[in-house]
């Protein structure tokens, strides 16, 4: 996904708020928050199996921009082939371009945002991540 640290933390926050809004306990929501930060918010994190636990290890870091916290056991060489997504069709992306430094710029130059300032476009990700988290919790309770 190539999110920067501000976007990733917002993404996780929205997922946790989504879980709380559908009745998850604070304890379960905190578990999801801690897990998401530990697994997906560490730049250059080593490959790991997440779900199911017997899956082969794969790279899990979503926050891989330079401002993301570096994993204590970093394996940055494994992430060298990963680059920021390119905008293929500006009309589909609303004329928004995301630079490699994590800065988001509108095609007409009207606004430039970085980190948590420009996160309205990522709100839908919180819903998706809430569903993913619910799956993690459900799987953990049945395994």
Features:
globular; mainly alpha; 36% helix; 143 residues; single chain; 3 strands; three-stranded antiparallel beta sheet
In short:
This protein has helices at residues 5-21, 26-40, 123-142; strands spanning 96-98, 104-106, 112-113. By secondary structure, it is mainly α. It has a three-stranded antiparallel β-sheet with strand order 1-2-3, with no helix packed on it.
Spatial separation of the terminal alpha carbons: 28 Å
Across the major sheet, the strand order is 1-2-3
Q: Structural class of the secondary structure composition?
A: mainly alpha
Shape: globular
- Element order, helices and strands? HHEEEH
Estimated radius of gyration: 16 Å
Parts with pLDDT < 50 across at least 5 consecutive residues? 110-124
Total helical segments: 3
Taken together, the total number of domains comes to: 1
Question: How would you sum up this structure, described in words?
Answer:
The protein has 143 residues and is mainly α. The chain has one domain (5-84, 118-142). It has three helices and three strands. It has a three-stranded antiparallel beta sheet with strand order 1-2-3, with no helix packed on it. α1 (5-21) packs antiparallel against α2 and α1 crosses α3 (123-142). The radius of gyration is 16 Å and the shape is globular. Mean pLDDT is 74; it is low at 110-124.
List the helices and strands and how they pair.
Blueprint: H1 5-21, H2 26-40, E1 96-98, E2 104-106, E3 112-113, H3 123-142
Antiparallel strand pairs: 1-2, 2-3
